[in-house]
Write a structure and sequence with these properties.
It holds the Pfam family TrmB. This is TrmB family transcriptional regulator. It comes from Natrinema limicola JCM 13563. The chain has 127 residues and is mainly alpha-helical. The N and C termini lie far apart (40 Å). The longest helix has 25 residues, at 97-121. It has six helices and two strands; from the N terminus they run αααααββα. The protein has helices at residues 9-13, 20-28, 32-43, 49-56, 60-72, 97-121, and strands at 76-82, 88-94.
């Protein structure tokens, strides 16, 4: 990942049967709005900020911030489309679900390995 998110894996540990949205949010350190934006883009690839703002019923600046966070976490792709009259707009597409699942597995594997290292290094002589 291009940015180191603030994982919230402790929250994930508290859930006995977490939903995919919870796993996505906790592992990538994103909020509910970013999770909702990702899932909307997954079902509506190639959306613009304006289209997402209308679908999500949020203002453009809020959607833009969510997209920036998702882009930093490598969860969305941003493509520039040239307009006929000149200029361009950005279109956003969610990263394919199999790729996101692999990223989730990798992040959890790293976290698990770290916890195993802490356990292995624990000094049994501590009182």
């Amino acid at each position: 990942m291009s940015d180191t998110p603030q994982h919230r894996l402790g929250e994930l540990m508290e859930e006995s049967n977490p939903q995919f949205e919870t796993v996505l949010s906790c592992v990538f350190g994103i909020g509910d709005h970013e999770t909702r934006t990702y899932l909307t883009l997954y079902s509506q690839p190639g959306s613009t900020i304006e289209e997402l703002a209308a679908t999500l019923e949020r203002d453009r600046s809020t959607v833009n911030r969510s997209l920036s966070t998702l882009h930093e976490r490598d969860l969305v792709r941003r493509d520039r489309r040239l307009l006929d009259g000149g200029g361009y707009i950005y279109q956003y597409t969610a990263i394919a679900l199999p790729d996101v699942k692999e990223m989730l597995h990798e992040a959890l594997d790293v976290w698990t390995a770290t916890v195993h290292d802490v356990i292995d290094e624990f000094d049994e002589t501590i009182e």
